[in-house]
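Before surveying the methods themselves, let us examine one representative protein, written as a sequence plus integers encoding its fold.
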Amino acid sequence: MKKKILLTAFIAVFALVLAACGGTKEDGADKGSSDEKNVLRVGSTGQSYPNGYKDGDKLVGFDVEVIEAIAKNLDYSVEWVNSDFSGLMGQLEADKIDTIANAVAVTDERKEKYAFSDAYSYAGVTIVTHKDNADINTLDDLKGKTVSGVLGSNNVKNLENFDKNGEITIRTYENRDGAQLEAINKRVDGYVNAKASLLAEIQKSDLPLKFVGEPFVYEDVAFPFRKTADNEELIAAINTEIQKLREDGTLKKLSEKYYGGEDITVKVE
């Protein structure tokens, strides 16, 4: 009987010790363990050539390599999360990811919601049309026409702002492939995106597209974060690394690698 009582008591004490250990681990997870602090959750569509796209199972691209270089220098590992662009913005707001590396343009509207890093590249927003569209050569020629764009992207908002009188019909799609294919297949008259991205796409696949005039707006591209005290410190560290990558030529080298020799890391005045 004594042995049974002692065995029961031992099991009870052992269970309490396990529970205590489990509680400590859970508390640590809630507060953020040292391992968690070294993980940067980054969003990308994985369909935005050449910013972030899949090469087999591997996510590659200009924005991908920039944030991974920064993370490595800061002793962070990157945990990638893929979604459509509008979904990424929602996940950022919901604290499911820490930032987005997907050519996110800095706008006054977005600055009210998010804290941004320094710009690491610059985008000139423009429109392409099918090569067969001989009557579309300038932006004015798009009046009364239909232009595709990515849902939630600032390229679409820029086009809306440019088209003050609402003379262009804008049709949105969840990703670049969908919007671009509409122009290639002549189901729309034009497609709006950043000039450098369009140029890279056209060169890569010999697409039957041509540019409609020059970019109608230029934007800073940076990493967005939620506005928190912890992120202020992280953004400051990231800004230091962006400057280092700019000074040692890494940003330029990566840009030329993915954008057919173009340097999109220099601001166009």
